[in-house]
Amino acid sequence: MATAVSVVMAATPLLLAAIGELVVERAGVLNLGVEGMMLAGAVAGFAAALATGTPLAGVLAAALAGMGLALVFALLALFLLANQVATGLALTIFGTGLTALAGQPLVGRSVSRLAPLFPEGLRELPVVGPLLFGHDPLVYLAWLLVPATALFLFRTRAGTVLRACGENHEAAHALGHPVRRVRLLAVLFGGATAGLAGGFLSLVYTPMWVEGMTAGRGWIALALVVFAAWRPWRVLAGALLFGGVGILQLHAQGLGLVAIPSQYLSMLPYLATILVLVLIHAGPWRRRLEAPACLGRPFLPPS
Which of 23, 157, 186, 287 could bond 27 through an S-S bridge, CB–CB 3.0 to 4.6 Å? Predict the structure, then answer.
């Protein structure tokens, strides 16, 4: 049971970041700055929690920090029509450097961990207590976002408009839909969830700030979106899979498998990511993994 709880915890930041990026890409925008936004959320959330003594203030600050970097990306990519790939990479580099500088005074300090949502009586129930009731609010938020996103994308008019902007932005504009506004809102949502993913790392998973503490999770979240074929429920399955691989390598190191160097064990989550992407694109189902048709393409409204 403890292992299952660890897998859920490890999967949560991946799930938060990936579900937001899924919405962004469904709108036709490719934002490769997830890692930078996660780092911004981690350092801002930790700093706010340290200053106020309230972890919930840190959660809010983490979301706002992610949205702030996402807004920079949106201004450059959506309104100034900069290349989305280059802008996203620049955002990650900028976020990495900025958080390393801003986080220097925070190294070695700690904050109170975000408290579990349910009372202790439920958390102590045998077998299911720790797994179902022992988590903080961000874990439950991440899991609730999956059905909420699925319902939004495939059962609401607004979700249909968003998907139309990703599939054919010229047709969506011709029908009177505000393509750039829809994409801006999607990018801000993706920034907020990426910031929350980073905040989860610094406020719950390891309640401290360490430079580069996301450790490539933003890139894994980007791969998860492709792995999931832009479907929310598959993102959940992928997050649990890759979270489980990460926990596996930690357990392997803890058991002292001296025959395998620790560096190779640490590579497991990333090797698994590459292997899964190669397999799904080489398999007979690759045609079902087509990205939104306008993904990464800039949109300039006709004058």
Answer: 186
